[in-house]
Write a structure and sequence with these properties.
By secondary structure, the protein is of the alpha/beta class. Helix content is 45%, strand content 17%.
Length: 289
């Protein structure tokens, strides 16, 4: 309960994008993201690509990714195609709402993504509470499968268990805080029924990760934080947001000097792996290999 209160307080300090997070297409969301220089998917991409390469046991293997908090399939687009977050800003952030419908955007995007050369050996399943965003990402061809679920407040449906069993890599690039250990608790039995996946979480420094780390640890996973490197998520939306989040960080004992004081929300990277994998090679060596 204490952890829930910490998350609630930190979420209250952030600017809300709830009003545009679950529309029929990503135009409004991307205009808002561009206004605050949202960059975390691009910053996370090289690390996720490295992990996917390591998880591919041979050239014929397909690595199956579960992206938690996937929204409109942003991470899927960057991992499956030779695209950048700037490319998506150009595509979605500059479309005029009055001149094209959501249905037309879906049709155009389906043709656009189908015409790109796809990275071999990767499938991306998305999980998010935003049903409209999930539907868009599936119909546009970004997600190979979408799960519109609120695992903070409901159990995992039995129908989803078979989809999750083959997952090799679980990713998130900003949902921790909205997503807590409750969701991980509900996912773990299905995720560990087949393979033992790796969990790659980029977590804003204002949110504690210890409860999720403990939950994963109870299932035999060892969590390491990548030391000496942080990742900009986005710029502060306002002076008020900046001051409130700096206050939250200081209350948590996190020094924002040289990080959030520069004007950005900043994330750290945590990798959780089965105990034998973590013992074989530590995180810093894994990423430099």
């Amino acid at each position: 309960m204490l952890n829930d209160r910490k998350f609630d307080e930190s979420n209250d300090a952030k600017a809300s994008m709830d009003h545009i997070y679950d529309r029929a297409d990503p135009r409004a969301y991307f205009r808002e993201l561009k206004s605050v220089s949202y960059t975390i998917p691009g910053a996370a991409r090289p690390i996720l690509q490295k992990l996917i390469a390591l998880l591919r046991r041979n050239a014929r293997d397909t690595v199956r990714v579960l992206d938690i908090g996937c929204s409109y399939g942003i991470n899927a687009a960057l991992l499956k195609y030779d695209l950048t977050i700037e490319d998506l800003y150009v595509r979605w952030g500059q479309m005029t709402p009055a001149l094209i419908t959501a249905e037309e955007i879906i049709k155009q995007d389906r043709e656009f993504f189908a015409g790109l050369e796809r990275v071999e050996g990767i499938e991306v399943m998305g999980l998010d509470v935003a049903g409209n965003a999930i539907a868009f990402a599936e119909q546009a061809g970004l997600l190979d499968r979408g799960l519109a679920l609120d695992l903070e407040n409901q159990s995992l449906p039995e129908a989803a268990v078979a989809d999750l069993a083959p997952v090799d890599l679980v990713t998130s690039t900003g949902c921790v805080g909205y997503v807590t250990e409750k969701s991980f608790e509900r996912l773990l039995p299905a995720l560990t029924e087949g393979r033992q996946p790796w969990f790659a979480n980029f977590v804003l420094r204002m949110f504690p990760f210890d409860a999720i780390e403990e939950t994963l640890g109870e299932s035999g996973f060892v969590t390491e934080k990548l030391d000496g490197q942080t990742f900009i998520q986005r710029a502060f939306a306002s002076d008020e947001e900046r001051e409130r989040i700096l206050e939250q960080l200081i209350e948590r004992g996190v020094d924002p000097t040289g990080e959030e004081t520069e004007g950005n929300l900043v994330a750290e990277f945590f990798l959780s792996r089965p105990r034998e994998d973590a013992a074989r090679i530590p995180l810093d060596r894994l990423l430099s290999a």
